């Protein structure tokens, strides 16, 4: 369902123009037609100008247009794209104890996912996770559901009803005892495939033009999938052009497990790396989303680039489960397209803004732990050692992701990861109006927050002397859903903070 009316948005607009460059448009106008498409963007244009100049150009009549104004200090920003989130795990956010990936799956995750074959529970959880993510400005999410077809289909139904753009994947996992999920798995590769077809068919009927919701093939991760299942999903991807999502190289024990389960002689892979297993199964495509990619080797990175597969960087989860520090600059340097994932509930928050904040912070740690290089260190003379230290310091600095960069990953980068870069992620004529209205707190002369001491600005206080880049930094490092005043998808208002 799109916007029913023509809309004129007025005020400040901020979006990414390049990885390291936010663009600020102040006193601007954006026209959005009934289909939710941006049809005009005009700088230095107030309401009177828009009516006088833009409307005749568009053949619009004033009476048919709804006007939405950003107040002084507020700004429109593209909706966030969560490139990796497990909808059924939402009730577990923040609950992970001291576990690491494989024991976390067994202790916390599989029992919860299994329980969502209860339709009432699935409805409760999925309704909540959609509302929660919309309230944080997530206009598009790549969701893992569960192995249950009915509740996966329900997730897709609820996304359409709530107006959230989504890729919805029925999880495929047919391996017995690896890792320890006999009660929660597909009985065979054939039944996994049949269930996948059933949920694809449902989504094709639900949204035939895939204007909001589309299916995505979802082999959970190599240790939970048989070779016949992975091979069949690779073939299906080739035949249908459907996107794929899976996990790659998240945790060292997982990587060791993959090496032991899939020696190259069994897969026909060129080497024993994790990425090579997926490649041999036809699962590395330009439409593949690889979550985590924390411990990739240089050869795996080159393979990912060669296949055009994309990476979902999940810093909250990587830190919570102690998986490691993903080297995002190292990935970007090689041309890997990256976006951000909350990875609920390995990740403790459903907020992409939190993921952006953690991406910035983790990149600073990558910088001080060897510039993303690692490995054996050659012994050098004192002089040469000093030179090396200087070089490493410089390289460490370069690992840091700026505010502009993490906001790019949260929007434009994410759009490319989910294959929607022509539609969403920025404000351009021809793109769709997936946007959020952000409001920060304005501190008055007496130190009070204008509009009242309620949650007007949430955790962000703006004193008025900050530059716009500084306001963006305050938002990234201190903002939350209290700053997300309104959210639109395809021109439709899907969330409003009361
Ligand atoms: O962060 C993760 N969450 C999961 O649910 C999962 N399954 C396999 N590997 C995984 N990693």
Automatic annotation (TrEMBL):
- Extract one GO cellular component term from the record: cytosol
The record's section on Pfam families has: Amidohydro_1
The record's InterPro entries line, in alphabetical order, gives: Amidohydro-rel (IPR006680), Metal-dep_hydrolase_composite (IPR011059), Metal_Hydrolase (IPR032466), Metallo-dep_hydrolases (IPR051607)
Q: Which cofactor does it need?
A: Zn(2+)
Domain Amidohydrolase-related: from-to ranges: 77-494
Q: What is its EC number?
A: 3.5.4.3
**Biased composition regions of type Basic and acidic residues, renumbered to the chain:** 374-397
In which pathway does this enzyme or protein participate?
Purine metabolism; guanine degradation; xanthine from guanine: step 1/1
Q: Quick one: where's region Disordered?
A: 370-397
Q: Which GO terms describe its biological process?
A: guanine metabolic process
State its role.
Catalyzes the hydrolytic deamination of guanine, producing xanthine and ammonia.
Put simply, this protein is called Probable guanine deaminase
Origin organism is: Chaetomidium leptoderma
């Amino acid at each position: 369902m799109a916007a029913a009316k023509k809309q004129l948005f007025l005020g400040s607009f901020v979006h990414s123009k390049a990885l390291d460059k936010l663009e600020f448009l102040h006193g601007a106008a954006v026209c959005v037609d009934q289909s939710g498409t941006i049809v005009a963007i005009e700088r230095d244009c107030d309401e009177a100008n828009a009516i006088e100049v833009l409307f005749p150009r568009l053949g619009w009549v004033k009476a048919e247009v709804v006007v939405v104004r950003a107040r002084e200090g507020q700004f429109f920003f593209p909706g966030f794209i969560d490139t990796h989130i497990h909808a059924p795990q939402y009730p577990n956010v923040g609950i992970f104890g001291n576990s690491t990936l494989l024991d976390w799956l067994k202790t916390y995750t599989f029992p919860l996912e299994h329980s969502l074959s209860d339709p009432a529970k699935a409805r409760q959880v999925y309704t909540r996770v959609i509302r929660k993510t919309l309230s944080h400005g997530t206009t598009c999410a790549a969701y893992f559901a569960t192995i249950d077809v009915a509740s996966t289909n329900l997730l897709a139904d609820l996304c359409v009803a709530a107006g959230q753009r989504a890729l919805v994947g029925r999880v495929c996992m047919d391996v017995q005892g690896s890792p320890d999920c006999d009660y929660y798995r597909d009985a065979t590769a054939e039944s996994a495939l049949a269930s996948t077809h059933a949920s694809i068919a449902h989504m094709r009927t639900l949204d035939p033009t895939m204007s909001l919701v589309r299916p995505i093939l979802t082999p959970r991760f190599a240790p939970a999938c048989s070779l016949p299942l992975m091979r069949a999903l690779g073939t299906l991807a080739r035949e249908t052009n459907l996107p794929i999502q899976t996990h790659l190289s998240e945790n060292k024990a997982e990587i060791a497990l993959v090496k032991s389960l899939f020696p190259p002689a069994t897969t026909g892979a060129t080497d024993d790396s994790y990425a090579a297993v997926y490649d041999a199964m036809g699962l590395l495509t330009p439409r593949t989303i690889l979550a985590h990619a924390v411990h990739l080797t240089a050869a795996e990175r080159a393979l990912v680039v060669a296949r055009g597969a994309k990476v979902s960087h999940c810093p909250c989860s990587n830190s919570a489960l102690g998986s490691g520090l993903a080297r995002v600059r190292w990935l970007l340097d090689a041309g890997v397209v990256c976006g951000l994932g909350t990875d609920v509930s390995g990740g403790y928050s459903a907020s992409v803004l939190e993921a952006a904040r953690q991406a910035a912070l983790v990149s600073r740690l990558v910088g001080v732990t060897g510039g993303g290089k690692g490995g054996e260190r050659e012994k050098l003379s004192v002089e040469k050692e000093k030179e090396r230290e200087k070089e490493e310091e410089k390289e460490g600095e370069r690992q840091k992701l700026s505010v502009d960069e993490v906001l790019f990953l949260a929007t434009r980068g994410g759009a490319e990861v989910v294959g929607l870069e022509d539609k969403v992620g920025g404000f351009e004529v021809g793109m769709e109006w997936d946007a959020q209205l952000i409001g920060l707190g304005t501190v008055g002369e007496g130190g009070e927050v204008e509009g009242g001491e309620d949650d007007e600005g949430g955790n962000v206080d703006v004193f008025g002397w900050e530059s716009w880049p500084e306001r963006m930094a305050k938002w990234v490092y201190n903002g939350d859903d209290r700053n997300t005043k309104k959210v639109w998808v395809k021109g439709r208002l899907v969330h409003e903070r009361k």
